[in-house]
Every structure is written in structure tokens, then in C-alpha cells.
Write a structure and sequence with these properties.
By secondary structure, the chain is α+β, with helices and mostly antiparallel strands. It has a domain of 73 residues: Arylamine N-acetyltransferase (Arylamine N-acetyltransferase fold), CATH 3.30.2140. The chain has eight helices and eleven strands. Helix 4 packs across helix 5. The protein starts with a helix and ends with a helix.
């Protein structure tokens, strides 16, 4: 499916961008800043045992028209469709997530990220990495600190492997490892099936939502709602009732819950088991 003018207009309305659109760095910068703010990271479908459909029509219906977010295969899957329709040269890649792990851990390739070739060189754009999503376009060059509207990022290269890193305070922390091998749709279909259905996938066992906002990031992990101020402290609040959690999802993240009774029942079981 190639997105038409109506879908592209709807996408930019969804992310709140009304500026000029062209296959250039300025447009890519605007997308990187606006997309993750308007379309939050969320895993409600795997958490509620609902299928995650990567078909283009499903991505458009869910993320653009359905007031939903999604995880990397959905976020960057939609972004790929948008960028290609505008005229960008896009190469889909995959990464091994090591966020909050020993960076030497060998994990599966379960993260989708996009390389875009611009006139002045290749860049990466990634709107699907949850609480550490970069809100800026990153030049694909090693060992250079790159500012974004939120935290600085950099890439470290070790032979043919690249590592994406975010600076939290004075510490550089690796988010994922990747190489430049182009990926096929079937690669994402297999990884998405594992991530959304496998019993060991963490997306099936706890809520994970994240959204960057001006000067801060917000996140929801299970029943813990956190606000992380840039360059400052973090505030955390434990939510005691399922209705509180649902209200945060709807109000703070702007998400239309797909099956509210099912979510409340699942949360009630989780809270009862933790009591």
C-alpha cells in the first residue's frame, strides 16, 4: 500500500504539523519531534491478548484514525509508509534491545528502526523506542554527541555493529545494537509475532506506555506513573485502582482504550495478585 494524499494529510494532522512537507531534513526533523509526542508508545493490544496487525491499512486505522499508539513495529512501520510516500529513500533495519541491561547481552532482533538517505548523508529516525525514544533525527556517524529536543544521543561503532546510546545525566546508556543489513517485511512479521504473542514477552505481562512532552517525559509501567523532567528529578506515583490507571492512559497519554472493561478486569487481577 502506498499512502495517498488524504492519508498523508491525516497523518500530519494527527502529529500536529502544518508546515511545508518535502523529502528534506527540515520535514524529517519536524516528524521526529512531533510523531512520538502525538502518538505515544503503548502495548495495550498484547497486554489484552489482542492481535497486533502490521498491515498498512491496520496501521493507518489504529495510529492515525483510532487515537491509539503502538510499539516499534507499528510506530516505525507507519513512519516508513509516510516517508516513502513523501519521497524519502528509506531502508528498514532491526536492532537488539539492551535498554536497562548489560549492553553485551545478546538479545533477539525485536526493534525496528529506519535509515533515511539524505543529500548530506545517512540518518536514523526512530519513533518507536518508548521511554528513550529520540525526538530528533540522528546522523549515522560514530562518536559524536547529537542534541535532540530531549536528551543527547550518540552512536558507537564496533566493527560492523552500531550502538545507539542516550545520555542520562553524565552516563551514556546503550538502548539497542544494530547493523545496516536491510530487513524484509517477513523479518518484522516474525519478530512481531514473538513480541505480541510469546508467553515470555514482557509486553504481555505488564503495561508499558511512554510519551515525550515539552521539557519532560512521562511513562506508565504497570501501575507506576512517572514524570521525568529534563535535567531534573523524577516524580513517581503508584496508582491504586484500575480506574486510576485507565484515566491516566486516557488523559495523560491521550489513548482511546480498545476494550475498557477487559483492561479494568486485567488490572484488577494484577492488583489483587500484588496485594
Amino acid at each position: 500500500m502506498t499512502l495517498g494524499a488524504a492519508e498523508i494529510d491525516a497523518y500530519f494532522a494527527r502529529i500536529g504539523w502544518a508546515g511545508p512537507v518535502a523529502a528534506d531534513r527540515a520535514t524529517l526533523d519536524a516528524i521526529a519531534a512531533h510523531h512520538p509526542t502525538a502518538i505515544p508508545f503503548e502495548n495495550l493490544d498484547p497486554y489484552l491478548d489482542r492481535p497486533v496487525d502490521l498491515a498498512p491499512e491496520a496501521l493507518v486505522a489504529k495510529l492515525i484514525h483510532g487515537r491509539r499508539g503502538g510499539y516499534c513495529f507499528e510506530q516505525n512501520g507507519l513512519l516508513r509508509l509516510v516517508l516513502e510516500a513523501i519521497g524519502f529513500a528509506v531502508t528498514p533495519l532491526s536492532g537488539r534491545v539492551v535498554w536497562n541491561m548489560d549492553p553485551e547481552t545478546v538479545t533477539a532482533r525485536t526493534h525496528m528502526v529506519l535509515r533515511v538517505d539524505l543529500a548530506d548523508g545517512p540518518v536514523l529516525i526512530d519513533s518507536g523506542f518508548g521511554s528513550a525514544v529520540p525526538t530528533g533525527v540522528l546522523d549515522l556517524v560514530p562518536d559524536i554527541e547529537q542534541p535532540t529536543p530531549h536528551e543527547p544521543f550518540r552512536f558507537v561503532r564496533i566493527d560492523e555493529e552500531w550502538r545507539a546510546q542516550i545520555r542520562i545525566g553524565a552516563e551514556w546508556r546503550t538502548t539497542y545494537r544494530f547493523d545496516l543489513s536491510p530487513q524484509r517485511d517477513i523479518d518484522y512479521a516474525v519478530a512481531n509475532w514473538y513480541t505480541s504473542t510469546h508467553p515470555n514477552s514482557h509486553f504481555r505481562h505488564g503495561l508499558t506506555l511512554a510519551r515525550p512532552l515539552q521539557g519532560r517525559r512521562i511513562s506508565l509501567r504497570g501501575t507506576e506513573f512517572a514524570t521525568h523532567s529534563l535535567g531534573g528529578s523524577s516524580e513517581r506515583r503508584s496508582l491504586a485502582e484500575p480506574e486510576e490507571v485507565a484515566a491516566v492512559i486516557e488523559d495523560a497519554f491521550g489513548i482511546a482504550i480498545p476494550d475498557r472493561p477487559a483492561l479494568l478486569a486485567r488490572l484488577n487481577r494484577a492488583l489483587s495478585a500484588a496485594a
